[in-house]
Amino acid sequence: MLTTIKLAGETLAQGVKIADLTDGRVTITTGAARFTGWPVRRFTRSILAAVVAGILALGAPHGAQAQTLLNVSYDPTRELYEDIDKAFADYWVAQGNAAPEIQASHGGSGAQARAVIEGLDAQVVTLALAADIDKIAKEGKLPTDWQSKLPHNSSPYTSTIVFLVRHGNPKAIKDWGDLVKDGVEVITPNPKTSGGARWNYLAAWAWAEKNGQDPQAFVKSLYEHVPVLDKGARDATTTFTQREIGDVLLAWENEAYLAQKELGADAYDIVVPSISVLAEPPVAVVDANIHDDAQRKLADAYLNFLYTPEAQAIIFKDFYRGWDTSKADPADVARFPKLELVDIAHFGGWAKVQKEQFADGGVFDQIYTAK
Amino acid sequence: MSDISPARAFRPAATEAPWARITLTLAVVAILAVLLFAPLVTVFYEALREGVGASLATLANPESQSAIWLTLFVAAFAVPLNAVFGVAAAWLITKYSFRGKAVLITLIDIPFSVSPVVAGLCIVLTFGANSWVGSWLVAQGLPVVFAVPGIVMASMFVTFPFVARELIPVMVEQGRAAEEAALTLGASGWRVFFTVTLPNIRWALLYGVLLCNARAMGEFGAVAVVSGKIRGLTATMPITIEMLYNEYSSVAAFTLAAVLALLALVTLALKSLLEWRYADQLAATHRH
After folding, report:
1. pLDDT score at A66
2. B61 in A contact zone (CB under 8 Å)
């Protein structure tokens, strides 16, 4: 059998092996001459070994140490949890623990729930809709009664739908009824693809009910004032702010403030209508991803911390409606005027709403005709 | 005869009237300007809208830095492995005749035809916690999905054909006469490869590697599915850009986008520089 060896640099030689040296090199003869060098197979094998070692090193578990915690959250909560994580780390160290390493992941709420189901090692989920955490619970990763474990339906903060209008409110939009006036263009995403847009739709529905109008006729005329139906909330914001289409954007209160802050406070005003919806983004510990007792203690403490006056103050500062105003900056609290809020139970729960309003052939399909 | 001028009669077939040439050139330039150049300039404009300082501050953010490192790391892993695979596959396909060759070529092409999202989902379903392979891996403490190995895997899947696809036409054109000559002169397989084949294909290989690198760094769809989007850990540059954009952090998002675009531009500049430097060799090997 022939053996290939590597001589200095790139040179290769092949011949019959006649001796194995103690350091691993071999001597071969080609008939005319003898060469000593490293066998090539050994050379390639060492490269392979390095690659395998590299892959194994990469795969080393990141979340296995007790003091790490992965919080899987939804899109615009980055600033909120950045602030919360800092405050929590101080609190946790003050309690006599080692500094925790809190990791965060952000994406669409539904997609994030899906990732946790597929094995994303989240110890804590803080998503937009209870239905998304229900899906994770259905896979057995946490008990189905998770929502009763923490106060306020496990929602440390709430939000609602408000109007973002152009500076000075040139179309004088004050309430839902003004959205269907002649010449007003409304920007809201497609309720079939966007969770936030379903809340927009339901808030309009609730206003019509309260004001003695036929809700279906009202939302029909509302969607007649929608020039483009974007896929998601962020796209709708882009349409309104970058492409400058429309007079009013229906948006989450926290996102409206965030957009105003990031895109210019002098360009947009926020109008709070007389009635809107109460969204309760819930939080939960994912039991199946808790690896030891120390991590459970950390995860429980993290979620309970959200209800402390300190964390609630941060929640108010980052544009969510908290529950406990005792330590919050009064200016942050004053930002949120009182308004009548209806929750999803008012509409009979998500399952019913989804089936009647947004499923194929539902009310939305009947009232909306694409332009 | 008198009514047909000789110039008209002998006009070369490939020469168009000046107005047609100018119109076509302008059209191409206009399309490039609108579709390629303007958006690229906008990215840099948006990145620098609040000044260089604000942009640099977002790059100093550990999250952005980790995204940049992860992207470079993934490319550093995926590109060499795909280069080795691509050379091996091209060698096999062009230097040997065997049954099922067409099937092999089709298999190599699969990543071109399959949507990256589907590729990502395939990896999640195969190696995710709900599959038996995945649950075994997780039990061994080696999670693939929602960890760096999954991102490397997704990037490799998507960039699989780039090197092989660049090499196969060149190697087919070159034939195997040179290798056969080397073999009859007593060279070993490795020696033939390093002294005969590799020098002949190096430009095609370089071009394939550059394309592969650009795509590996920029891949979004497949990586988005398998990344888990853990900030500072499994978020590559394209993923971080999307997250920042969705959070209204426009300057940070566009700054990172500008860095990613710059990386791609450096890759292209490198290629042009090499082409310019070795133009004569290139002409000799018919590769541009």
Report:
1. 47
2. no
Nearest alpha-carbon partner for A12 in B182, B191, B186: B191
pLDDT of B173: 87
Interface touch A118/B249, C-beta < 8 Å: no
The shortest CB-CB distance from A106 to any of B138, B146, B243 is to B243
For chain A, state the CA radius of gyration: 30
pLDDT the model gives residue B287: 47
Residue A52 to residues A45, B70, B77, B155: CA-CA distances in angstroms?
10, 18, 11, 17
B228 interfaces chain A, CB cutoff of 8 Å: yes
A263 → closest Cβ in B143, B243, B248: B248
CA–CA gap between residue B261 and residue B43 (Å, rounded): 9
d(CA B151, CA B72): 12
A101-107, strands of its sheet edge to edge: A101-107, A68-74, A124-126, A283-285
Measured in angstroms, the CA of B45 and the nearest CA of chain A are apart by: 14
Give the pair of three-digit tokens for residue B183: 């073999």
Q: Could you give the CA distance from residue A93 to residue A158 in angstroms, rounded to a whole number?
A: 28
Q: Do the strands A34-39 and A26-29 form a parallel or antiparallel pair, or are they unpaired?
A: antiparallel
Q: Domain limits of chain B? A: 62-284
Residue B17, pLDDT score: 81
In angstroms, the CA A295 to CA A66 distance is: 5
Nearest CA in chain A to B191: A12
Domain range B62-284, its CATH number among 3.40.50.300, 1.10.10.10, 3.30.70.920, 1.10.3720.10: 1.10.3720.10
- Distance CA(B68)–CA(B217), nearest Å, equals 9
| CA–CA separation, A59 and A53 (whole Å) | 10
The CA distance from B158 to the nearest CA of chain A, in Å, is 19
Chain A residues at the B interface, defined by Cβ less than 8 Å, are 2, 4, 10, 12-14, 40, 51, 54-56, 58-62, 64, 70, 75-76, 78-79, 103-107, 112, 115, 117-121, 234, 237, 255, 258-259, 261-263
- Mutate which of A14, A51, A103, A105 to test chain B, going by most B C-beta atoms within 10 A? A105
User: Which tens digit of pLDDT belongs to each residue from A94-153?
Assistant: 998 899 999 999 888 888 888 899 889 999 999 988 888 998 999 999 999 999 999 999
Q: If 0-12 CB within 10 Å is exposed, 13-18 middle and 19+ buried, where does residue A218 land?
A: buried
The interaxial angle of helices B148-174 and B198-218, nearest 10 deg, is: 150
Mean pLDDT by 10 residues, chain B (288 residues): 53 74 92 90 89 88 91 94 93 88 90 90 88 85 88 93 90 87 89 89 88 91 90 91 84 92 86 79 59
Closest partner residue to B246 (CB to CB) among A55, A76, A121 is: A76
**Domains along chain A with CATH numbers:** 2-59 (no CATH), 68-157+281-332 (3.40.190.10), 161-279+339-367 (3.40.190.10)
Q: Closest Cα of chain B to A182: distance in Å?
A: 31
Q: Give how far B166 is from chain A: nearest CA, Å.
A: 25
SS3 (DSSP) at A104: strand
Contacts of B143 in chain A (CB under 8 A): 59, 61, 119, 121
Provide ipTM, 2 decimals.
0.73
**Chain B residues inside the 8 Å CB shell of A267:** none
Q: Counting one residue from A and one from B, how many pairs have CB atoms under 8 Å apart?
A: 104
